[in-house]
Amino acid sequence: MPTITAFKSSPDKGVGLARDMRVRWSLEEVGQSYDVRLVTFEEMKQPAHLGLQPFGQIPTYEDGDVALFESGAIVLHIAERHTGMLPSDEAGRARAISWMFAALNTVEPPIVERDYVKYFEADKSWQAEHLSMVDDRIRTRLDQLAAAMGELIWLAGGFSAADVLMVHAIRRLEGSGILEEYPILMDYIARAAERPAYKRAFDAQYEVFQKGSSH
Ligand code: GTB
Question: Does the structural domain 3-84+197-213 have CATH classification 3.40.30.10?
C-alpha cells in the first residue's frame, strides 16, 4: 500500500488546495487505498524528508522500491499503473499527457505566482500593479483554456489525470473573483467536485484539518 505525505497542519485550512489533494484524488479514482504520513514544516526540511523530496515539500509517494516526488509525476505514475485515468489508445493517451503538462507548466505557474505576490509582496508599494499584471497573465491562460474546452466535458475525451491536475490548479483561484468570469471553468470544477473520488479525497484531507484544529 502506498504512503503519501501531507501537511500536518495545512495553511489552506482544509479547503483542499495543498497538492496532496491531487494525489489523494487520483488514488481514490483508481480505488487504491493509501497511508498518509503527516509532516510539519520543520520535518519537511529535515534530511529524512529531503531524501524523498529534495525541495522540502509535500507531497511524496512511496510504494516498495518506488519513491516519488512532484505531484505531476505521482499522478502520472498512478494513472499509468491503473486503468481509468488515461485513455487506452496511444494517441488519446499522448494527448491527455500533453494536457497534464499544460496544467503544470502553462496554466498553474501564473496562478502560483499570484499567491506569492499576494502574500509575500504585501509590504511593497508596487504590489497592486504586480498583482494586476499577474492577473492579466492568468486571464490569458483561462481564456485559452475555456476556448479549448468549449463544449467538452473533460479535457481529453473521458475523465483523465489531466482533469485532476487542471481542476486542482485552477481551484487555487477560488476567492480571487477571477474564476467567476469563466462559467465554462466553474462548471468544469463543479463537475469534478461531484465525482465520488473527489469527495472522498476532499473529506480525507479535511479530516486532517478538523482533527488538527480540535486540540
Ligand atoms: N512542484 C511541486 C509539486 O507539484 O509537488 C510543488 C509542491 C509544493 O508546492 N508543495 C507545497 C509545500 O510543501 C504544498 S502545496 N510547501 C511548503 C514549502 O515549500 O516549504 C502548495 C500549497 C500550499 C498552501 C496552499 N494554501 O494554503 O492554500 C495551497 C497550495
Answer: yes
Q: Which fold has domain 90-195?
A: Glutathione S-transferase Yfyf (Class Pi); Chain A, domain 2 (1.20.1050)
Query: Cβ < 6 Å from ligand 1: which residues?
Result: 11-12, 17-19, 44, 56-59, 70-72
Atom of ligand 1 nearest to the CA of 11: 27
Q: What is the pLDDT of residue 215?
A: 55
For ligand 1, atom 18, the nearest C-alpha belongs to 57
For residues 2 and 64, is the Cβ–Cβ distance under 8 A? no
Q: Which residues contact 108 (CB under 8 A, 6 or more apart)?
A: 165, 169, 172
Please tell me whether the overall predicted TM-score, pTM, comes out greater than 0.90 for this model: yes
Q: Where in the chain is the domain with CATH 1.20.1050.10?
A: 90-195
What share of the chain in percent tops pLDDT 70?
A: 99
Cross-strand partners of 4: 36, 61
Q: Is 44 exposed, middle or buried (0-12, 13-18, 19+ CB in 10 A)?
A: buried
From the centroid of its chain, how far is CA 204? 15
Q: Whose CA is nearest to atom 26 of ligand 1?
A: 12
